[in-house]
Request: fold
Amino acid sequence: MAPARRLLALSLLLLLLAAAAPAPSAAAEEFTEELLLRPLPDRKALAHFHFRSSTPAPARHHHLFPKAISHLVQKFHISELELSFTQGRWNYETWGGHDPLSTNTKPPGVELWAVFDLPSSEIDATWKNLTHALSGLFCASVNFLESSTAFSAPRWGFKSNEGNLRYGALPREAVCTENLTPWLKLLPCRDKAGIASLLYRPSIYKGYYHSQKLKLTTSKTGGIVLDQSLTVVLQPNTASGKQLHSADGKPQPSWSLEHLFNRKLSGKCLVSRSSRIFVEIEKGILAESGPEASWSNEFFELSTAPDRVLNELDHLDVQSSSLYEYDLGNYNDDEPLDVGITWKLPLIWSCSPAPYYARRFLMGSGNERGSIALSFLSTDLHKQLGGSSNDCSIKAVVLQVFPWYVKVFYHSLQIFIDGSSKAISEVLEMIHVTPSEDKLSPGTLEMLLRFPCGMQSATLILDFDKGFLHIDEYPPDANQGFDIPSALVSFPEFNSSRRYPETDPMFVSPLLENFKEENVVKSYTEVLLVPLTTPDFSMPYNVITFTCTVLALYFGSLLNALRRRIGEEESKLKKAASRPALIPMLIARLRGQKADPSNSESSPVSPIGLKLLLKVAFVAVVAVAFHYLSNS
Amino acid sequence: MAAAAVGFRLVLVLFGGDLHLSSRPEVSTPLTSLRRLAEGYWLKQASMSPYSGSMYHGSPLLLSVLGPLTSKRSGGHHAHIYCSLVFVAVDFIAAMLIRLTGRTLQIARGKSLKSLDLAKSVNDPVNASAGDTASLIYLWNPWTIITCVGSCTSPIENLMVVVMIYGACSRLAPLAAFGYVMATHLSLYPAILILPVTLLLGYGPDTPPAKVFLQKGSSASKVDISDIGKSTSQRGFGQISWKPVLHFMLWVFIWSCYVLVLNSIILNKAGGLQEMFEKTYGFILTVKDLSPNIGVLWYFFAEVFDFFRSFFLIVFNMNIIFMVLPLAIRLRHRPCFLAFVYTAIVGMLKSYPSAGDSALYLGLLGLFANELAEMQFTFFLFFGYIGVSLLSPVMHNLWIWRGTGNANFYFATGLAYTCLQTVLVVETVSSMIKHDRKLRLLIRT
Reply:
């Protein structure tokens, strides 16, 4: 009874607070939490956490909205920002590439882009400060994006803008709990209550794909919306659960929250406006099990009866997927929610893919040059969508950022369609290149391609030379190689929006709002690892001494060869007898001096001594002057 | 023979397939690579500055001459076939000019020996004329051949140097000035050749030192006073004639204005002259590209501590200039030989050396076959060059392609090569000095 009473007291207090606050406008600070669960075709499960905090205007005090973020927005004049920490790669073939979740997946490592509300001259400096602020905020080395070799300003390949967008990626950044903890700190309940309490570290970091995102949008009136989302693909822990063997002998796991996260949900975060869990059953499953799918049918059964069912309609008004909604407000400690799915019959289905699978790989061997190939494999999506005529075409936009040490020859672009070489102008509609500058800026390649619909595969090949770096520019593990960030391929003619016509206007769900947005279908390619040659790191002294020796040898011996005449002249002047070689003459002279000093009448001795004295004095003066100058 | 050499090049270009010579570090440097030129041309066509992207570092003139040829691809042959044909022609012209220069030198030598009455006592060890030897050496030198076939722009740079020397030898001031301005514009280092060219125009081609003539004159006056007219004419030999020099200076000025105006027209919409100087001369002087070549500076600057970098840049660049004056003073009576020594020094110490530079000075070396007949260490040098040119690709392959060797292997061949060149320069200079002394001794006896 005690917890219930405490809960009651708390909610009363909240009510009082809400009544006491003058409520300046209808839109106050809000927080919502949502979780989407979806079974994936390859026996895995996807969980997508989505938290939205919003504030009508940045203020000195915030009730729910994190103050650090509002400071960030005010200080750096951010109009949009997205920061993602990702581990693992989204499997576009089996996990889908056309739905809102999979088009919002991120490349491995850290990716940051921001649109600034500033004049273009100040943007680069602001970006540098922003990276430092974010790296402090998230305990990550985002500050490596500060260097001008790490970020670029794509014009239309990423998101069309007026030159106020900056984009940077760190493919090698490792993501771990130290990044999650500060991220959770931005939530009003952290991971103590509500949906975020499911984030049991050992289970979420065990997954195949883990992407933690933070997206900021500011509206014209100054309101800030902070979307935090975490997408994980997990293998359900089915050691205890029942396994159902499908036709091909692989177990089809039945899972629940308990299996996925080792936790059950016992109530919502009290300050959240809405707290919901959705279980999404995809089109592929529904096509098998029949359109009128209830939560318990002959193929599968959900462990708990949903509070509501939402049906998505595709562009032909045919039902495609179903969302079973659970309102977390109805559950508490005594009656925790452990939603799950139990399979009754083995099912094989597939998710709808993007129009092309984009792959990228390196060609060539050795450490001098190579080629990057970007290949597109058709998924015949346009046939499924109808509209297949012979002269139709599909647009694809490619954004690729090359670090400077990958010196791309843009004139070497070759395009092969279905294995045969094509003229570039046939496919390439628009191209924008910002070539890289050595040790100064990365190269950016943006291309708008138009492929014929009937095409099965296309390959784009670019040659590059590998750069040679100064020893200080290599990272500590130089022989591991260098990463080229993922290329982004988007298909502007396809969008991933979903329609849920039956929703009533009172039903507010930021997650579904995101799903309804018209987002272009995007996919990221693999990160490439380019090995670069290394010099010998232990050699600097040897190299300096060897080189200087050789140069001194050249200088000394050439000068010696040139000044030989002096001896000859003197010998000619002194002794009429021919004495061609210099050394015997010198030796003889020395001997002569030693043997008989009176012969030289001591006259050459005193000038030599004087000269020597002068020389010594001169060197001493130079040394003193140098010492004085270098000290001052 | 010359036709056979051209034929051999054509066979290599047309039927040799892609030998991948264009990406060999020995053949093409960041300055001369034709691939980079093609990239620069592409950037220019895309209405960007050809210098953006740190790819192209050559002249805008080459860009507009060779650029259109690189973009035409013909199936079957390798990509830059038209350029290669141009280079074959350029090589042939250069060889012919070397031959003509050699002939001028030969005539001058014959004349001066005759005036010294030494024509019989100094017999030429080389039967053929020096010009023929030099041009054949230039044409059949394997390094010239790979430079020509391996699509890089060094043949054009070499041609300009040869044009300059030929123009100066035959006292064609405008031609010499053109060669000088173009060579300096293309690769900066030939700028130091202004001394030999001025001497050539002022004093005429190589002669024995003036003192020999003086001695000859004095001994002649002792022996035979009637021949006084001849000795005065010989004395006139040592005096500089200012007219062609001034002519040359004027033409240098005209040509450089012309070249600069052309460049600024070409770079009108992208970059401009400031960027051109930064990206060509600046790139040469600051050794920004650390990719391996047959020199030693790339590895030096890849390894040297950053705070010493500017110091060593100054030292290495000064090293070329240091020797200019001493050599000019010592060898002023042999300006052509002086030009050869300067090219050899530049080929050894420049920031991005390639086989093409060596090809040039080895070709010019042939011009002095008679004078340098008593050179020492020729056997050692000959096999040293062969050894280095065989070992260097092997070491490069071990390091870059197989990964079984490391950078030190390749650097060692670079060091050995620099040493060889040092020996060559020192030996040629000292044997030339010896030759002059021998002449003097002959006069005296």
User: Anything to note?
Assistant: The radius of gyration of chain A is 36 Å. Confidence is low (pLDDT under 50) at residues 12-26, 595-605 of chain A.
